[in-house]
Design a protein that fits this description.
This protein is α/β, with parallel strands linked by helices. The chain has helices spanning about 40-50, 95, 135-140, 145-155, 170-180, 195-205, 215-225, 240-245, 270-280, 295-305, 325-335; strands at about 1-10, 10-15, 25-35, 55, 60-70, 80-85, 85, 105-110, 120-125, 130, 165, 185-190, 210, 230-235, 250-260, 280-285, 315-320, 340-345. The longest helix is centred in the middle third of the chain and has 14 residues, at about 145-155. It is globular, with a radius of gyration of 20 Å.
Length: about 350
């Protein structure tokens, strides 16, 4: 089969790879219909390189069941599916408590096991999630990032009537805008330095957009909220700068949840850090998209709201490309050669 294999930073190759084969009775092989680029893929491509040289890459996808092991009962050949890409060990302290996102040996396809930038991918049956007819393959390829977002929002116990600030209007931030509204947020404030992203955030449900370029975000937000701040801050930009600024946006007794990953040291100046202490903030880290029973309610909840049309991901998709365009596309993204939102690859194209 054809696949995108990562050999090193900025060394991605479209080439032949072995077809996956059933090794265990609980294995499922999926014919990949659509696979999307994750923000973490960009950082690994540009800076970090692969866990294993030449590994088939990618973990956000949807497809059709092609083969199943003899013990598989939850899906059958021909089913339309997506799948949780996370692989947990099942034996560590945290797995034994059902805290799978904290697994000591947590991995994801595309790291130590072949991923979904390929014609076929293999996963355990428990990872596979069936799709209703109303959810197309393009939409379903974003079930994984949506599950990441709702996993974090669950931690905050968001309530109807909360005011919410979302920092960063990439895929995670735009999904967070919609999830905040689904949870009943009164006002959603989207923050970014790109006006086009802020307009899209408002199209998808944000009540206000704040361009934070060259300003202190908390000054503008507090002006707009009557000097109160917001109940919940979602940091989804993954920038060292915004990761520090996030503490300044919450009201007294408010909550801050971090979904973005800053690939650099976060230097928190005194004013920002004092907000944690003086305002008695609750601060949450959120990792991955899994809980018990595995893979967690995040997945079925996402599929449900996609089916109901409450999660609209189509405006976020900017590119529909063949898999062989992968190497050139990643180069364009890191060189900022054009506007890229969610990029989808089609192995059959």
């Amino acid at each position: 089969m054809k696949a995108l294999n990562l050999y090193g930073p900025r060394d991605l190759r479209f080439e032949d790879a072995p077809n996956p084969v059933l090794e265990h009775d609980t294995d499922v092989i999926i014919k990949v219909k659509v696979a999307g680029i994750c923000g973490s893929d960009i950082h690994r491509y540009a800076k970090l390189g692969p866990y294993i040289k030449g590994m088939t890459w990618g973990h956000e996808f949807s497809g059709e069941v092609a083969e199943v092991g003899k013990a598989v009962t939850n899906v059958k050949v021909g089913d339309r599916v997506t799948a949780c890409p996370a692989l947990y060990c099942g034996t560590c302290e945290y797995c034994n408590k059902g805290e799978f996102a904290r697994c000591e040996h947590l991995s994801v396809i595309g790291a130590l096991n072949p991923g979904a930038f390929a014609e076929y991918v293999k996963l355990p049956a428990e990872n596979v999630v069936k799709l209703p007819d109303e959810v197309g393959y393009d939409v379903a390829s974003l079930v994984e990032p949506s599950s990441v977002v709702v996993h974090g929002i669950y931690k905050t116990s968001m309530e109807a009537g909360d005011d919410v600030a979302i920092i960063g209007c990439g895929t995670i931030g735009l999904l967070a805008v919609q999830w905040a509204k689904i949870f009943g947020a009164r006002h959603v404030y989207a923050l970014d330095i790109d006006d086009s992203k802020l307009e899209l955030a408002k199209q998808l449900g944000a009540d206000f957009g704040i361009n934070t370029k060259d300003i202190e975000p908390h000054e503008k937000l507090f002006e707009m909220t009557g000097n109160r701040g917001v109940d919940i801050v979602v940091e989804s930009a993954g920038s060292p700068i915004t990761s520090a600024q996030a503490f300044s946006l919450a009201r007294k007794g408010g909550k801050v949840v971090f979904m973005g990953i800053p690939y650099g040291d976060v230097m928190v100046k005194r004013f920002y850090f004092e907000r944690i202490v003086r305002n008695e903030l609750s601060v949450y880290g959120s990792w991955n998209a899994i809980s018990a029973p595995f893979p967690g309610k995040e997945w079925q909840t996402t599929v449900h709201f996609m089916k109901e049309g409450k999660l609209n991901v189509t405006p976020m998709i900017t590119h529909h490309l063949s898999l062989k365009e992968g190497p050139a596309t990643f180069e364009k993204i890191i060189n900022r050669d054009g506007h890229f939102g969610k990029v989808l690859f089609y192995p059959e194209k």
